[in-house]
Amino acid sequence: KAGVTQTPRYLIKTRGQQVTLSCSPISGHRSVSWYQQTPGQGLQFLFEYFSETQRNKGNFPGRFSGRQFSNSRSEMNVSTLELGDSALYLCASTHSSGGAETQYFGPGTRLLVL
Amino acid sequence: GENVEQHPSTLSVQEGDSAVIKCTYSDSASNYFPWYKQELGKRPQLIIDIRSNVGEKKDQRIAVTLNKTAKHFSLHITETQPEDSAVYFCAASGAGGSYIPTFGRGTSLIVHP
């Protein structure tokens, strides 16, 4: 099976702009989670979508939003970008087995806000 | 919510030595503990995991141990090689029925040839 894919891989924006990132999960995986990774804060959970519904949400402001389509592909949007939004954004699709849920990560989108 | 502490933040070893990374978690209801390896510029990749009904698991040169009573788990890498150099993340999930993992801050492992 193909792995998790993310587009674009790199992005440069300026403050105040908005950005949309895309994630395609592993075929058959219905859950997609998004994380923000920064050197100082590690991996911070943004939100999780399952069957087109947001099922879990982390502690990020409303400028961060997402959605999931019927084919399980997911997008996340960040509006009114701030310098502090510069980070690697990772999505992960989830495989369930024996009561445990394992996450498989995409390569990430590196966002730089100037 | 769950809180995962990971130590050390940086670990430097000589090739062939063993490396141990330790994590503690706060919620005794957590029942799944994966470890991820992230090489520079690459995605985190699952290298080993353990469930709460198991005390130890091995896969070639890596092993993970879990002490539920003390609420800590550790990653052991034996006979380290330069290609083991990476950032390692521990995580815990399952508390409150949520499988969203809470990650530790990561350990940067440097293996000197």
Task: Provide key terms for this protein.
heterodimer; A: mainly beta; 7-stranded mixed beta sheet; 4-stranded antiparallel beta sheet; globular; B: 113 residues; mainly beta; 6-stranded mixed beta sheet; 5-stranded antiparallel beta sheet; 0% helix; 54% strand
What this model shows, in words?
The complex is a heterodimer of chains A (114) and B (113). Chain A has strands at residues 5-7, 10-13, 19-24, 31-38, 42-50, 53-57, 64-68, 74-78, 87-97, 100-105, 109-113. With 114 residues, chain A is mostly beta strands. Chain A is globular, with a radius of gyration of 14 Å. The termini of chain A are far apart. Helices cover 0% and strands 54% of the residues of chain B. In chain B, the strands form 2 sheets. In chain B, strands 2, 4, 5, 9, 10 and 11 form a 6-stranded mixed sheet that branches. A 5-stranded antiparallel sheet of chain B has the order 1-3-8-7-6, with no helix packed on it. In chain B, a hairpin with a 4-residue loop joins β7 and β8. The mean pLDDT of chain B is 94. The A-B interface holds A 4, 33, 42-43, 45, 48, 56, 90, 94, 98-108 and B 31-32, 34, 36, 42-46, 49, 51, 89, 93-94, 98-106.
What's the topology here?
The complex is a heterodimer of chains A (114) and B (113).
Chain A: E1 5-7, E2 10-13, E3 19-24, E4 31-38, E5 42-50, E6 53-57, E7 64-68, E8 74-78, E9 87-97, E10 100-105, E11 109-113
Parallel strand pairs in A: 2-11
Antiparallel strand pairs in A: 1-3, 3-8, 4-5, 4-9, 5-6, 7-8, 9-10, 9-11
Chain B: E1 4-7, E2 10-14, E3 19-25, E4 32-38, E5 45-51, E6 56-59, E7 62-67, E8 72-77, E9 86-92, E10 102-103, E11 107-112
Parallel strand pairs in B: 2-11
Antiparallel strand pairs in B: 1-3, 3-8, 4-5, 4-9, 6-7, 7-8, 9-10, 9-11
